Amino acid sequence: MFIDHKYIEEVLESSKNATKEEIQEVLNRAKKSKGLSHKDIAILLETDNEEQLSEMYKIAGEIKESIYGKRIVMFAPLYVSDYCVNNCVYCGYKNCNTFKRRRLTQEEVAQEVKILEKMGHKRLALELGEDPVNAPIEYVLECLDTIYKTQNRNGEIRRVNVNIAATTVENYKKLKKANIGTYILFQETYNKPSYEAMHPKSLKGDYNYHLTAFDRAMEAGVDDVGAGVLFGLADPKFEVLGLMMHNEHLEKKFGVGFHTISMPRIKPAEGMTLENFPNLLTDEMFKKLVAIIRIAVPFTGLIMSTRETAEIRREVLKYGVSQVSAGSSTGVGGYTEREKGGSIEQFITSDSRSTLEVLKGLLDDGYIPSYCTACYRKGRTGERFMKLAKSGEIQNVCEPNAMMTLMEFALDYGDKEILEKAEALVKKESERIKRDDIKILLKNNIEKLKKGERDLYL
Ligand code: SF4
Ligand code: SF4
């Protein structure tokens, strides 16, 4: 198997007492963007000298700026079913929790989608528990169809990323045919004994089957996959090397690795507390991991959900995170029910600001909130996307797209303040575009948007 536990433990052990000089050598290499070896990553994980930490954040910030510019991709989760046959120790939806479970009807899915569209969202992450009887693949396909078909005035969902349990090549082919965006699956933990302890007696309990899910997805033609670890289940240093080895395995076998990595930290949920988890991450360690992953895999998007507080999200946006959710509900039917007092949530969120508040915060910090979904719609996925990203040309595409989608948002869903902030930002940022043809195109498209045209992109 491509996650070699003994090897990871040896690399971590041999880096344990890394000296200040050794850490500095790795930081110098990181600056040159020449890539990092497993040993380099393990050494960086040992950094705790204040000066070297600040240097590491600076390097990660520069790498992020050079690849992603100022744009931050926005998305929201949509939970459609909390039926689940598994008993993941850390999750509020686990089978042994007794509460009235539900699965949304297609009318209810459409209702949720309309609310999300009214919030300005264009990109969703479809979420549900694993239950082959109550929520089989056919149900997921129906939901996808409903989501793509549901429109609300100018609102439409243009990309649905799907987070469903590990499944067969056959089922992945069905998802591919239904036009999913990224297939998201968290390994939760790469450490096999911890994995087995966290997933007792369940479908999800088969470590190898779960670990090879992306292999089957890619065999089925899903070339856009998003990984993740639930930090807090096992040694975080082990997890970082696990993520790297998984990514390298896919690159070697299929020519393309993770499109995104999600970095949730374990949170309290219905029926569990954090007392029995000895590997919880401090904020300091969490920030360090974000920076190291950004340096190690510069072209892989880093996702942060509303599990984290507004303060932490703001901090890690500086040197790592490129995608955030906003205005999220993590309960089934949660957007419809939010006003009524809420449904059972999969976990407790920490950033409860509205979408508009999140956007204002991003704009005030100089970011361009982006609702762009152009790559996927132009078929630029998997290897084609990575080629473009690595060529640096994506800069001429993403930033103008981010500005157009921001203006579209501001015109349709923003208040006066958002519109003014967006206009000022677009004016300032468009000056920095180097190519005159792109500058002119952007200016013309912004005018077209003001006159009522929609969905313009490069
Ligand atoms: Fe079910 Fe997923 Fe929760 Fe596990 S993490 S109990 S599979 S919903
Ligand atoms: Fe993402 Fe592609 Fe849009 Fe760039 S152009 S923001 S890579 S979808």
What do you see in this structure?
It comes from Clostridium gasigenes. InterPro entries: Aldolase_TIM, BATS_dom, FeFe-hyd_mat_HydG, rSAM, rSAM_sf, ThiH/NoCL/HydG-like. Its cofactor is [4Fe-4S] cluster. This is Iron-only hydrogenase maturation protein HydG. This protein is of the alpha/beta class. Helices cover 48% and strands 10% of the residues. The protein is built from 20 helices and eleven strands. Helix 2 packs parallel to helix 4, helix 15 packs parallel to helix 19 and helix 18 packs parallel to helix 20. The protein is globular, with a radius of gyration of 21 Å. It binds iron/sulfur cluster (2 copies). The site of one iron/sulfur cluster has 9 residues, from loops.
Q: What is the CATH architecture term of the largest domain?
A: Alpha-Beta Barrel
- What name goes with the CATH superfamily of the largest domain? Aldolase class I
How large is the share of residues in beta strands? 5-15%
- For the report, how would you describe the main beta sheet? 9 strands, parallel
Principal-axis shape? globular
CATH class of the largest domain: Alpha Beta
Mean pLDDT: 93
* Overall tally of structural domains: 3
Bound ligands, each once: iron/sulfur cluster
Q: Over all CA atoms, what is the radius of gyration?
A: 21 Å
How far do the termini sit from each other? 41 Å
Number of strands: 11
Which spans of ≥5 residues are poorly predicted at pLDDT below 50? Answer: none
Total helical elements: 20
What would the CATH topology of the largest domain be?
TIM Barrel
Give me the secondary-structure category: alpha/beta
Helix amount, in percent? 40-55%
